[in-house]
Write a structure and sequence with these properties.
Low-confidence stretches: 1-5, 174-178, 236-252
Number of strands: 11
Strand content: 15-25%
Structural class: alpha+beta
Largest sheet: 4 strands, antiparallel
Length: 333
């Protein structure tokens, strides 16, 4: 039993789709915790904090979809126009105009909704900083985290995403988030953290947990991934997601890259990426958070003791769930 089961900040699963992951003092078994993230960017990964930039991934899925619709309609209009004996915009099917206008409006609307939502895991202060609403940022203790692997569905495909929950502090007004008793934030650093199985969620949770306990030494890339040249920055790029989720498809990596490059150009991806990056890079953390993340910060008001993992009990992925094991990997009751 975890020493945190009596934790007053414990959050029960909000729904049957939420699978609670182990408490902070139980680590993923070392044989299952193999990281492939390039953490060389000192602005994003350092001994004071690491920062999730999942919203800073170069383009938004909604923008890509609506831009694809926009380009398809535009291509249809131009094809009809240039195949007419006497080209005239007035002779085109009238229904194309409102449909095209609607596609343009959708692109503009989704683009206006894009915003940066970075999350900082402040190791030196043992705090988690994140944006709450459009104008507010919160800082909550890391030791109050409750991790969940949340099942979702997109069309015919099921997937899991990592959510980190806090009990809502008393100073958060109800009108800020309705009647929910918890605050949920994303635990993802990369699009590949969303998968059809739970293991990538567990791996990312362990990545954050281990950093908050021991620092950068605990999240260094595994030598195997260096040898296979599979180290990449966790910025949410779509290239390489499938080989990472399905190792047996790694041999088709070049096909995956060619397909993504074709799709990216077809929807004017480079222009979308540039616009989104310029917009979300405007975000700046408030001064009080920057002070807590700075070298030599005054942290006397905070409990900066890391949550230490047990050495006698671990967990590992098993049969669409997880099981507890001991150090040698044998089942632990």
């Amino acid at each position: 039993m975890s020493r945190y089961n009596h934790n007053p900040y414990k959050v029960h699963p909000p729904s049957k789709d939420h699978r609670a992951l182990p408490e902070l003092d139980i680590a993923l078994h070392p044989n299952s915790a193999n990281f492939a993230d390039d953490i060389s960017d000192k602005k994003q990964f350092n001994e004071r904090f690491i920062e999730s930039r999942i919203s800073d991934r170069g383009g938004d899925e909604g923008l890509y979809v609506f831009m694809a619709l926009h380009n398809f309609i535009l291509f249809t209009i131009l094809s009809i126009f240039f195949t007419m004996e006497e080209p005239s915009l007035l002779e085109l099917p009238w229904v194309l105009y409102p449909v095209y206008a609607m596609a343009v409006c959708c692109v503009c609307f989704v683009g206006a909704m894009v915003q940066s939502e970075p999350i900082r895991f402040n190791r030196q202060a043992q705090l988690v900083h994140f944006r709450w609403g459009r104008e507010r940022c919160l800082s909550l203790p890391w030791r109050q985290i409750n991790a969940f692997s949340v099942a979702g569905k997109k069309g015919a495909f099921s997937y899991y995403v990592l959510h980190l929950h806090f009990l809502k502090p008393k100073n958060i007004a109800v009108e800020d988030d309705g009647d929910f008793k918890t605050i949920a934030i994303s635990g993802m650093f990369d699009d590949a953290d969303t998968s059809f199985w739970m293991y990538p969620n567990m791996l990312r949770y362990e990545f954050i947990r281990r950093y908050m306990e021991v620092g950068l030494d605990g999240i260094q890339p595994d030598n195997v991934f260096w040898e296979e040249n599979e180290i990449r920055k966790p910025t949410g790029s779509a290239v390489g997601i499938m080989p990472r989720l399905l190792p047996f498809l790694a041999r088709t990596n070049i096909v995956n890259k060619i397909w993504f490059s074709f799709w990216h150009l077809l929807v004017f991806g480079p222009l979308i990426d540039l616009w989104v990056k310029r917009k979300i890079n405007r975000f700046q953390w408030p001064e009080d958070i920057e002070r807590l993340c700075a070298e030599g910060a005054d942290l006397s008001a905070f409990d900066t003791t890391p949550v230490k993992a047990r050495s006698d009990r671990y967990y590992r992925y098993a049969y669409s769930d997880y099981q507890y094991v001991n150090r040698s990997g044998k089942l632990h009751s």
